[in-house]
Amino acid sequence: MRKVLLLLLATSTIISCNSSRKGRAGKPGSQGEIVVAQKSQQWNNKKPYGMVPIPGGAFVLGQSDIDFTGTNTKAPLTTVTVSAFYMDDTEVTNAEYRVFVNYVRDSIVRSLLAERVGNEGGEGEGIGRYSYLNKKSENEQTAYQQMLEEQGGREGYDESKKLDWSVPLEWNTSRYPDVAYAEVLESLYYPPEERFNNERIIDSRKLIYQYTWIDQLEAVKNKGRGKDFLKKEEIAIYPDTTVWLRDFNYSFNEPLFEQYFWHKAYSKYPVVGVTWDQARAFCAYSTKSKNDYNQSRKKKKDKIFPYRLPSEVEWEYAARGGLENAPYPWGGPYLIDDRGCYLANFKPKRGDYMENQNGYLYTAPVKSFNKNGFGLYDMAGNVSEWTVSAYNSSSYTISSTLNPYLGNRIEDPRKVIKGGSWKDIGYMLMVSERDWEHKDSARSFIGFRRVQTIPEGSKGRFPIVKKHAPVR
């Protein structure tokens, strides 16, 4: 008995010694202190493709350059501060937006094919290849997927209905694998009685993009959370090509109506005919696409800061390019350079849309004119651009001086557009000029570009830009 007690005492002593050496709590060696498992490192925010960094800074908001009294957009000048963000160096082009359209088209086709297959599995060379990923014999279901299937899935995204994107779609009718496949794809095209010259064209009305977002402002306001503040959007995302006919009466614009969005000749031109909601849907898709890629890598990466539309103040700050009291992105006050060439795509004279415009009668390819001090192209002219901001003639007087923003205000039908367009006169190109359009309106002269927030703690922060005296 004595030997047993001595053995227990010795063991206790060894454990006590080890504990004092490694710490009684937390990670071994922490000596009881709170120690983070990984060494704290600055987060490296990689610059997104096609974007340029806009450094945070302060500037004078409003028409500080020219005094137009008696206008409904005139407001007291205010010095405001804007955080750093990335911004597309050009407007979103037809080619970029077509990637979005094709993704929506393909995801709809794959979902229809997978539903048609049902529970038959994914064997063979026919339509069975397009079954949901978890139905295929080589893909065993995880416990989570089994639970979802037993419960009939979850409202919203269903993990058990994951599509297999590795199997290519076949669009050539002579190569359809079986009749079932042909029936599914044919359902996506216009019916024969609605076709022109019997041309098979996908029914753009069926290209619906679904996504969700949280109305955080309402949630905070009502001190709650949950499905009441979860907004589900279903957006028909195909651009309205009829704008080329509707915006201009008694004008021959049929070629643009028929070809502007899809023809390769217009790939580098800014996409138009998109509503405010469609622009936001494109931003949501951009965020999803990047996050999906990050999660598909062996070494998974963090979720990115969402792509979004810029606020009105962010847009104006970026358009100025760091210049003080400048009416245009290149400075000013003139619209031409020292060689007599116009510095943007706009209407220089009454009825004259082409004088010294390099032959651009309507929109111009992006990057056709010089960039501003931040590296942004076409912040004046070419197409006006949607912002996320609701239009209010008193915005400058009631908003904060720190990242001014009146909130998303989805219910407000009027949204601010900035920059002027190819059909506008020079006054509309001023960086301080404000205009608006109904959010459900599509126009042949309105496009958009995205921004992405740069967090304060990210690696490689940018210098503060401050090139003016404060306005009191």
Automatic annotation (TrEMBL):
Listed Gene3D superfamilies: paralog of FGE (formylglycine-generating enzyme)
Parts forming coiled coils: none
Superkingdom of the source species: Bacteria
GO MF assignments: formylglycine-generating oxidase activity
Keyword field: Lipoprotein
Keyword set includes Transcription: no
PROSITE patterns in the cross-refs: PROKAR_LIPOPROTEIN
Domain Sulfatase-modifying factor enzyme-like per the UniProt entry, residue ranges: 50-451
Protein's UniProt name: Gliding motility-associated lipoprotein GldK
Organism of origin: Apibacter mensalis
